[in-house]
TrEMBL record:
Keyword annotations of the record: Repeat
NCBIfam families: PPR
Name of this chain's protein: PPR repeat-containing protein
Source organism (scientific name): Reticulomyxa filosa
InterPro entries: PPR_rpt, TPR-like_helical_dom_sf
Pfam family of the protein (one): PPR
Length: 380
């Protein structure tokens, strides 16, 4: 209907077409954006930078990065679009949008191309959004060298106010690159008395994720149990009941269980009970009394805890997993997971299914997987 309306009415106001792009994006119809552009061009409607930025932004939202780059090149780099005496030129929003589009792909080369074009050709100075977008690209590209160059530029630029967004962006770089010592240096930088920068629970979860990625489970537990409470006393925005922080702590116990062998029964039981305590008392306490929606990821983690607990004798874990999926009426979760386990328990436990996210399963050697498959075939 949007496309039909634009075709049938003689709209000349480019803002109507910008609104149409937003509406199509909201309706999850990003493929219609190209048609909107074609209609505007066919009517010789003069675009403005707001329209271009709107198009580029929403193409990025829907991961249409090739199309986004093509339009940017067509509109700005080739300088083919001229209306009267004025050429449309990109602004800082345009460049920040394009750099942000490089983040998901970790395309640092293309991001730096936009930065150079922005500063050298168009003489536009980067702002905080530009810098943090660049850091996001570096994080996904695991590019510490360029990230540190950008960070040094930021902290030495009098026009850039280093805030929680900047701190979190640089923490994210070090977390994804498993540079935990440098990660903690950034945290300490933010907590300097002479220039205190308040942080929140998102900052804490980024650090916890960094420890997990580096497989430093003891350091993460120490950070959660000892350092976060101290940070919370000075940073009132830290929510100690944040579900993601709590969930990450539970994952630590799964990681520890993964490192234990099947003969270490006491240690396996200890960490399994720790995981259950967190799951039942902190993540989903309401499930004791009423039906509660459980995320697919958390159901998988719960299943994995029983898989790890019974790694020496897999058949013992099947009963507990059946109870989670079929008998506990207060656990509301994906019915697809129920059906997948019912029809293919081997797929769930051996990590073949789409619904399995068990890192410990997917990392097993083939002989171990064969053992599990043989046991589960007997059960099935």
């Amino acid at each position: 209907k949007i496309i039909q309306c634009l075709k049938e009415n003689p709209f000349q106001d480019i803002s109507i077409y910008s609104a149409a792009v937003k509406k199509c994006s909201k309706l999850k119809c990003p493929n219609l954006i190209k048609q909107i552009i074609e209609i505007a061009e066919s009517k010789n409607i003069h675009p403005n930078i707001i329209f271009y930025n709107t198009v580029l932004y929403h193409l990025g939202v829907w991961n249409k990065f090739d199309l986004q780059e093509n339009y940017f090149e067509q509109w700005f780099e080739q300088q083919q679009v001229r209306y009267g005496y004025q050429s449309l030129i990109p602004d800082i929003i345009t460049f920040s949008t394009m750099i942000r589009g490089c983040a998901n792909r970790g395309d640092i080369k293309q991001a730096l191309h936009y930065l150079i074009l922005m500063t050298d050709t168009y003489k536009i100075e980067p702002n905080l959004i530009t810098f943090t977008s660049l850091l996001s690209v570096c994080a996904n590209a695991h590019d510490i060298k360029n990230a540190e160059l950008i960070w040094n530029k930021m902290i030495n630029d009098p026009n850039i106010d280093i805030n929680i967004i900047a701190i979190s962006s640089m923490l994210n770089v070090y977390a994804k690159c498993r540079e935990t010592e440098k990660m903690m240096e950034i945290l300490n930088y933010s907590q300097r008395p002479e220039k205190f920068i308040p942080i929140n629970e998102i900052t804490c979860t980024t650090i916890m994720s960094g420890f997990l990625k580096a497989n430093k489970v003891k350091e993460m537990l120490d950070f959660y149990d000892n350092q976060i409470p101290k940070l919370a006393s000075n940073n009132k925005n830290i929510d100690l009941q944040n579900k993601l922080m709590i969930s990450l702590k539970s994952i630590v116990h799964l990681r520890i269980m993964k490192t234990l062998n099947g003969n270490e029964i006491k240690k396996l039981s200890f960490h399994h009970q720790k995981f259950l305590d967190i799951f039942e008392n902190k993540l989903y306490p309401d499930a004791k009394h009423e039906p509660t929606s459980i995320s697919l990821k958390d159901v998988n983690n719960l299943i994995q805890s029983y898989v790890e607990l019974n790694k020496k004798s897999w058949m013992k874990g099947v009963k507990d997993i059946e109870e989670i999926l079929f008998q506990n009426s207060n656990y509301i979760h994906s019915l697809k997971l129920n059906e997948t386990f019912k029809n293919g328990p081997i797929q769930i436990l051996c990590g073949i299914s789409y619904f399995s996210r068990m890192e410990s399963i997917s990392g097993w050697t083939l002989p171990k997987r064969k053992i599990i498959q043989n046991e589960l075939k007997k059960w099935k």
